[in-house]
Design brief:
The protein is mainly α. It contains twelve helices and four strands; from the N terminus they run αβαααααααββααααβ. The strands form two sheets. A two-stranded parallel ribbon has the order 1-4.
């Protein structure tokens, strides 16, 4: 028998599936983008106002169940950057990567994406129409840390938005061991990959697993620590001392393994939470600028504007 003709609906669905698969592998930028707050926000003062508006909107809209994933969203948007291809980075592309059947690394970010959209719309309609998703995602991630007791990091504005999706297959997994994780952070372009890995893993203080069902790499859905609403360093105690919820992911446990290049710093942070909190902002700021060049317009990784103040005060 000859093959049955495919309906127009079937052809459309097939074409959409092919397009979605192509989009998932299409880089969002062919070179590192330039941080340019003056170009995006007209001038530096307005960029600072937009930062404060975004921070304040985050504080109004973040809730316990979305705080952790807004921080996760910030890292997932940035950590697609690869130095070997000069593609990806903190460019807002994650808002184009919400088909979780394709972008499986983002599973569980549905509510966070809705909150992010709400924040951006609120800010754009109340004084900062120029706000980019790329900036909003990183600022909201910083606000999530401060809302749970962590430090309020000075942040920069001026990241342009991508027009297509990034390759998300390069993001770290709960099944990766310390060697693979450090290699990934090296390809991301972190100045000190092993240290940044340990510091930014502190996001798991307030983390929540989106892995459904137990596996050899995860204990399943749920908070990653026994006190998931406190960004204070207890994550390191639970992993190093095998207390609380211990290392919920295998990737967490590998950081404290005997002989691991990260083990000493994990122990240091377990014994001195202040050292972790002091280290957080510089490493988060660097993560927030992966794939973005701040130097071309006279900025550096150490620069940032104080968030949270009401414009005009």
């Amino acid at each position: 028998m000859p093959p049955r003709p495919q309906s127009s609906t079937g052809r459309a669905l097939r074409l959409f599936a092919l397009f979605a698969a192509w989009l998932a592998l299409t880089p969002s930028a062919w070179c590192k983008t330039t941080l340019d707050p003056a170009a995006i926000y007209s001038d530096i003062a307005h960029a600072q106002d937009c930062l404060s508006m975004t921070w304040n909107a985050a504080n109004q809209n973040l809730r316990d169940q979305t705080i952790a994933n807004c921080l996760r969203m910030a890292f997932h948007d940035a950590a697609t950057y690869q130095t070997n291809t000069d593609e990806g980075g903190a460019n807002g592309s994650i808002m184009r990567e919400l088909d979780f059947s394709i972008f499986t690394q983002h599973n569980g970010l549905q509510a966070s994406a809705a909150i992010m959209e709400m924040i951006v719309v609120q800010v754009r309609t109340t004084g900062c129409s120029e706000l980019t998703y790329a900036d909003a995602i990183q600022v909201v991630g910083a606000a999530a840390v401060a809302a749970t007791g962590g430090p309020a990091c000075d942040m920069l504005m001026g990241r342009p938005d991508a027009t297509v999706a990034d390759n998300t297959s390069v993001l770290p997994s709960q099944c990766h061991d310390v060697t693979i994780l450090i290699d990934g952070f090296t390809r991301n372009g972190f100045t000190d990959p092993a240290t940044s890995l340990v510091v930014l893993s502190g996001a798991h203080n307030i983390g929540r697993s989106q892995v459904t069902g137990q596996s050899r790499c995860s204990r399943g859905l749920g908070p990653l620590t026994a006190a998931p609403n406190s960004f204070d360093g207890h994550y390191y105690n639970e992993v190093v001392d095998n207390t609380g919820r211990r290392g919920w992911f295998d990737s967490d446990d590998s950081l404290a393994d005997n002989g691991a290049p990260t083990a000493t710093l994990m122990t240091t942070f377990a014994r001195d939470h202040g050292a972790f909190l002091d280290a957080w902002c510089p490493h988060y700021r660097e993560s927030s600028l992966l794939g973005v060049d701040p130097v071309a317009n006279g900025f550096s990784l150490n620069d940032g504007w104080t968030p949270g103040s009401i414009p005009g005060d």
